[in-house]
Write a structure and sequence with these properties.
34% helix, 7 helices, 8-stranded mixed sheet, 247 residues, globular, alpha/beta
Length: 247
């Protein structure tokens, strides 16, 4: 049965923000979310057991503990949650996955910040960032001067399904979309997501300097996952695209 299972001690959270890190174009959401978990030393809070997720156990360098591939981490001090994923969601199961996660979000007064990469060339100012929202999300983006989309588009994959469910259920949410490398992990685009989107919206102070300093190391760490994502169906990958690509 699909569910989210709390782990360890109860954490006192007051209407927290949730940063979503499903793998997608440039792995920007995953890199950003992994950075927050590491930077804030976030606590392993819950395991996510939804349809569409492979039944595998994952482990980390220097740690014998086996954990599920999708997990929630919490920072009580900052009222922050992070959805960390080591696997993509199958295209045919994206809806069921989104239903499972959205039900938990609604039941726990969580405000989600959904993250997506958009294939595109970067100009001299670095990766462009824009935002979309459901319910009050658009107003929050205006308050933080996050750009509006410059063309029609759509968000595919599990992130698209999550935003669709938020809109359908009248849930406040924000979707942050950044231009990113379509072939390789993109730490610079992830830095922009954090610095110009996540940090001001969630009211947290994040040091992102080492995301750029460790860019090559991060690319090497994420390369195998990026290759698996490239071999998968496009609908498996969370990504934003111009709407004409769906016509």
């Amino acid at each position: 049965m699909a569910h989210v299972r709390l782990r360890g001690d109860e954490v006192d959270l007051d209407e927290p923000y949730l940063v979503e890190g499903m793998p997608g174009v440039g792995l920007v959401g995953k890199i950003a979310t992994d950075h927050l978990v590491e930077q804030f030393d976030m606590e392993y809070y819950a395991s996510v057991h939804c349809d569409g997720l492979p039944r595998i156990g994952v482990y980390q360098d220097g740690d014998r503990t086996v954990r599920p591939p999708v997990r929630l981490y919490a920072d009580e001090k900052r009222d922050l949650l992070a959805l960390q994923s080591d696997v993509p969601v199958s295209a045919e199961k994206a809806t069921e996955f989104a239903d499972c996660v959205t039900e938990w979000i609604a039941d726990n007064d969580v405000t989600p910040l959904y993250l997506s990469g958009r294939p595109g060339a970067k100009d001299g100012d670095g990766p462009a960032l824009f935002g979309v929202g459901t319910e009050n999300g658009g107003e929050w983006l205006d308050e933080q001067d996050v750009d509006v989309p410059s063309e029609n588009g759509a968000i595919a994959g599990p992130t698209g399904a999550l935003i669709s469910r938020a809109a359908e259920n009248d849930i406040d949410s924000v979707g942050l979309i950044v231009e990113s490398d379509s072939q390789f992990p993109d730490p610079e685009a992830a830095r922009v997501l954090i610095d110009r989107g996540i940090a001001p919206l969630a009211n947290v102070d994040v040091d992102v300097s080492n995301l750029v300093d460790r860019a090559e190391e991060i690319r090497e760490q994420k390369e195998k996952l990026a290759q698996r994502m490239g071999q998968a169906d496009e609908d498996t990958s969370s990504q934003a695209q111009p709407l004409r690509m769906f016509q």
